[in-house]
Design brief:
Layout (H helix, E strand, L loop, with lengths): L1 H25 L26 H5 L14 H20 L10 H27 L4 H17 L4 H21 L7 H14 L3 H22 L11 H25 L3
Helix pairs in contact: 1-3, 1-4, 3-4, 4-5, 4-9, 5-7, 6-7, 6-8, 7-9, 8-9
The structure holds zinc ion.
Length: 259
């Protein structure tokens, strides 16, 4: 039962993240203001804003002007719901809360927040080919403080951040800024702070596998051409989330490839 509540809670956070992404792009405040239809400007009421269900019930159309909404909205909601559920099941395996300690609750809430940052980076880069400092910098500070509370070594975090950021900085210098943007360098540093050492290497490796498989798939399906822009932050944020949850297994596997 609790897993259903966790998923629904994640849906609502996903709905909020959609608003954050939209208003970041329009440079509006995302605290103030009521929700309006983007096309007819009609005010949206709570019954229009139930995550996932309003979209499914209205078959993706505005109740007032019938304009079609982007499928981004329900997809971000569902993805956030799933991410929140996976984090919950990582912290409380089998959804067993009987032995929950303060550290468990702290990890749950802070990893939910980290996941929310990653969802915003994922969608924003996919949609606008941009990684915003307004998102990355607070995420770096937040993750640093969280990991100190969780007992991570500051030096290992800094080493991982230097390696993660340096990896993209090197490509930035080599390509004179053609392959890589400044946002990727800062995202590499964020990955280091979130994941620490040596898990950052696992995440970079997974990102390249995901990037190659998906790019080749899109090329074969003729959805993209050689030389098209690739939203690399999208792969990096997904790989970071996967590594956060499954780092122990994955890091052992990654290093076993070389031994
Ligand atoms: Zn409308």
């Amino acid at each position: 039962m609790i897993v259903v509540f966790v998923f629904i809670f994640g849906l609502f956070i996903g709905s909020f993240l959609n608003v954050v992404i939209y208003r970041l792009h329009r440079q509006e405040s995302f605290i103030k203001g009521s929700s309006k239809c983007l096309f007819c400007g009609h005010r949206l009421y709570p019954k229009d804003l139930v995550p996932l269900f309003s979209y499914l019930f209205l078959r993706g159309h505005c109740r007032y002007c019938k304009h079609r909404f982007s499928s981004q909205y329900p997809m971000v909601e569902a993805a956030t719901g799933l991410a929140f559920l996976l984090v919950f099941l990582y912290v409380f395996p089998g959804a067993n809360l009987a032995l929950a300690s303060f550290v468990d609750w702290f990890r749950l809430v802070s990893w939910w927040a980290m996941s929310a940052f990653l969802v915003v980076i994922f969608v924003y880069d996919l949609k606008y080919y941009l990684i915003l400092d307004k998102v990355i910098l607070p995420a770096i500070i937040f993750s640093f403080l969280v990991n100190i509370v969780l007992g991570h070594s500051v030096w290992q975090m800094l080493l991982a951040a230097v390696v993660g950021g340096g990896f993209f900085l090197a490509q930035f210098v080599l390509s004179k800024g053609r392959w890589i943007g400044g946002g990727d360098i800062r995202l590499g540093a964020l990955m280091g702070i979130m994941l620490s050492w040596p898990q950052v290497l696992t995440a970079l490796f997974i990102a390249y596998i995901l990037g190659s498989v998906i790019s080749v798939g899109l090329l074969l399906a003729s959805r993209k051409e050689w030389g098209d822009k690739v939203p690399f932050g999208t792969f990096l944020s997904l790989a970071t989330f996967i590594t956060l949850l499954y780092s122990h297994n994955l890091t052992n596997w990654y290093f076993s490839l070389f031994s």
